[in-house]
Model the fold of this input.
Amino acid sequence: MDELTGKVALVTGAARGIGRGIALGLAHAGCDVALLDLGDGANDTLTYDLSGLAELEATAQEIADTGVRTLAVACDVRQPAEVDAAVAKTIAEFGGLDLLVNNAGVVHMGLVDTLTPERWDLVFDVNVKGTFLCSRATAPHLAARQGNIVNISSVAGKRGYAGGAAYCSSKFAVIGLTQSLAAEFAPTGVRVNAVCPGILATHMWTHHLAAEDRGGRAAYDASVDQMIPLGREQTAEDIAGAVLYLASAPNVTGVSLNVAGGMETN
Done:
C-alpha cells in the first residue's frame, strides 16, 4: 500500500509468530519497523517457551533484508520504564512514529479451579496492561503525525470458551480498551482498531491445541475443520493483511475486525 511507504511502525511481540508476520508485512509495504520483544531469561514459568533475543535479532535481520530501516529493542511490555525507554529509542532512531501494533501476548488455558491468581495476573499484565502502557507512551508521538494503533485481540475476546477464563477475559478487555481509546484519541486524529485472529499454528497456540495429550496435530487439524467454516487455519500473513488495511483506512476507528475464516461473526 503506497500510503505506508516511508512510515514508521512499532510492533510488540515481534520476534516470531503473528508479530513477525505483521512486521514483515509492514516492511514489504515500505515501513521502517521497530521490533519489541523480550530479551533472554523472561519465561515467567509459562508452560511453553517465550521468544528470546536471538529470535528478535533474526527477525530484525529479515526486516533489514527487505531494504527498510529496522530497530530491535528488548522490552518487557509490563514494565512502564522499559516501554518508555523503548519508545524513546524508536523516536530517536526514526524521528517519529506513525503506527503502533500491540501484539505482545501470552496464553494460559485451564479450568478456573486450577487457575492461580499469579497466572491470572501474568495474562492480564501482558495482554492488557502492556497494551495500555504502549498506547499511552506512543499517543503523543502518534498524534503529532496523525498515526494510528492496531491492537491484536482474538475471537476469544468475543466469545468465552471453557478453560479460557483468563485469556478470554484479557482479550475482551483489549476490545474494550480499543473502543475507549478510539473515542478518547479521535480528537487528536489518532485512530485505534483491533484485529481478532482465529486459530493459528503459532508456537503459543500449538503448544495447547496440538499437545500430545490432546491428540497432537491430527486433533488440531480436526478442530480447524470443525470450528472454521472456510476449513483452514489462519496465518500470520492473514493477520498482517488486516493490519495493513486498518493502518491505511483513514475513516475507520473503534473496529474489532475478525480474521477467522467465519469462526466468529459478531
In short: Residues 13 and 104 are 4 Å apart (CA to CA). The chain has one domain: 2-198+236-259.
